[in-house]
Specification:
three-stranded antiparallel beta sheet; globular; 20% strand
């Protein structure tokens, strides 16, 4: 079982309009292309959206309780706008920040995971996305390292997912 470390102190930096536009342009360009993932590997970085050849979902301890992570220890999130059993409401622009877990093969149930809750759902662009308890699974690009939980509670719509498949809507 893995342990997740809490987010440490954060600092807010304001950008000028030209700097913010440059950052946004870089984000869009990065989301639209880039190097291919390593064969057999999962998402290679926070913004990776290419399918992995195989993946597993596990349960790890975190400041929010027992939550879902991938086999690399990267936190998985749920979106409050997603309806269980349906395609994710997180479209192309959204997945630039909240990449979907889209493995090429069925996801394996790892330690602490209820295999009967682990399924796949079709995304609007045709990719198959891993789901747990009917809820599509996402990463957050702001989680730079395994164990990060920086996406918790963002916009009041993104939350870690508990071992029972429910969103854990605790404040970070």
């Amino acid at each position: 079982m893995r342990s997740i470390r809490p987010r440490t102190g954060t600092t807010t930096t304001l950008l000028s309009a030209p700097a913010a536009a440059a950052v946004l342009a870089l984000l869009v360009l990065t989301a639209c292309g880039g190097p291919e993932p390593e064969p057999g590997g999962g998402p290679s970085g926070p913004a990776a959206t290419s399918p992995a050849t195989a993946a597993s979902v596990e349960v790890a301890d975190s400041p929010f309780g027992r939550i879902l992570v991938d086999d690399s220890g990267r936190t998985l999130y749920g979106f409050t706008r997603d309806k269980p059993g349906a395609a994710s409401a997180c479209g192309a622009d959204c997945t630039a920040v909240w990449p979907a877990l889209t493995p090429a093969q069925a996801v394996r149930a790892g330690s602490g995971v209820n295999a009967s809750l682990l399924t796949r759902t079709s995304r609007s662009e045709g990719a198959e996305q891993a789901a747990y308890g009917g809820r599509p699974l996402h990463y957050y690009v702001g989680d730079a390292s395994p164990g990060d939980v920086n996406g918790q509670g963002l916009d009041g719509e993104w939350f870690v997912i508990g071992a029972d498949g429910q969103l854990i809507q605790k404040a970070p």
